[in-house]
User: Fold this.
Amino acid sequence: MLGREVQLTALPDGNVRAENFDVFDKEVPSPTKTQVLVSIRRLGLNAGLAHRLGGEGTAYGPGIGVGDVPSSDAVVEVLESGVEGFQPGDLAVGKVPWCTAAVVEADELRKIADTESNGGLDAHLTVLGHVGFTAYTGLIHVGDVQPEDVVYVSGAAGGVGSCVVQFAKARGATVIGVAGSNDKVALLTDALGADKAINRHDGPAVDLLRDAAPDGIDLYYDNVGGEQLEAALEVLNFGGRAVICGAVGDGGGPANYRRLIYQELTMKGFAVTSHEDLRDQFETEVGGWLREGKIRSLHTVFDGIDRIPEAFVSLLTGGSSGRVIVSVPSQLQS
Assistant:
């Protein structure tokens, strides 16, 4: 069958632009006995992928060069299968290339059941998806969040950050989020339940955080690095913890790292791909919160495969809220 795919056509010179990508027709092969032919229904985009453009691989995937097709987690619909357990029309979650249709190994897909009871397709790429699992692993397993904690979350209106805010509240903690606009600040408090929210453009990060947390913070969930990490290290209480999930900037480490010593702070990073053993616990607890209405899916949707480059740049520049998702119509014949 004929499909369409998004390729990297030029390495970024500075910031990533939509013009660094283009969309091409492609022939999609037939699946083997261990594979299934799937079409994308929802594709989730991840900011960390930008660091692999023209660079080295990471725990999340190989480096991406000119002519390569990036991959992301997606909700897919089975078009053709000779594998037991998958039939045309089945829905699954897996990591697939940026294309309308692809052949993937069946054992790399996780079949999903009734999407209506689980918050629809989008929820499987947000609170129940990769970003939700990342948020849960860092907050619960690495950060060991407790009900008495004051938790500070950077990038709080983004895909991972919005899940961290909600999961921390569901565990009973007090939550302060920081975002990049007044609309996102309002979203954090009015829709996601944050106790306080900060617009990072309103002043120096450390001053804003001290005003929001006069008694200090106990746990910092870092999605951005830079000034926000330094501010958190200044305001963390004795014995506090910092969870390092992401760093969108290119700056070096925190200048005030010595506070780790005399405040006996803990700063720990993690790669979510190493914690698949937590999957069942995550799906049980977060699925329960979703059914009870304690959490919601926060996402920005772009329609059509041609809008992937635009959607990716919107993610990187903060022009969207929550997870950035590209929606593609079903290719099954009605």
Q: What stands out?
A: Helices lie at 130-142, 159-170, 182-190, 205-212, 226-235, 259-262, 279-292, 308-317. The CA atoms of residues 74 and 257 lie 38 Å apart. The mean pLDDT is 93. Residues 279-292 form the longest helix (14 residues).
